[in-house]
Amino acid sequence: RQYNRCNHRYELVFDRDALIEEVADDAKIDAIKFSFVDLHAVQSKAAPCTVDLCGVVVSFKPFVAFTSREGKALAKRDVMIADDTATSLTIAIWGERAKQEDKVFE
Questions:
Q1: Cα–Cα distance for residue pair 60/80, rounded to 1 Å
Q2: How far apart are CA 23 and CA 19, in angstroms?
Q3: What DSSP line would sit under 49-89, residue for residue?
């Protein structure tokens, strides 16, 4: 995961002998599928839960670095998002994503 900024554990590395060719689209290969839930509906879900959210960043706080009770170094950033249901929600972003430059959240 040397150059991977995505949240998955796979990375493709091409050397100088790699051959990349365009091919026809294969409809049998699934694309990433989301099941977006509006922010208003999140309120009725039992916690903890996992949902796909889509919203606009309304505000954000600087990331905070701290040490857990177990002695692990952690980074957290609170981001408030809102959607077209006129609902806002503060979400926590952890780890390296929390440490991204402020301009990413603007």
A1: 6
A2: 12
A3: ---B---EEEEE---EEEE-TTS-EEEEEEEEEE-TTS-EE
| Span 60-100, pLDDT tens digits | 999 999 999 999 999 999 999 999 999 999 999 999 999 99
Decide: 68 and 74 in contact? Cβ < 8 Å. yes
Rg (CA), the chain: 19
Dist CA 13 CA 77 (whole Å): 31
Both tokens of 39, joined, read 């922010």
95 vs 23: CA distance, rounded Å: 37
Q: Give the separation between CA 29 and CA 8, rounded to whole angstroms.
A: 18
Would you call the peptide bond into 48 cis, given omega within 30 degrees of 0 as the criterion?
yes
pTM above 0.70, yes or no: no
| Alpha-carbon dihedral sign for residues 22, 26, 29, 31 | positive
The whole-angstrom separation of Cα 106 and Cα 87 is 19
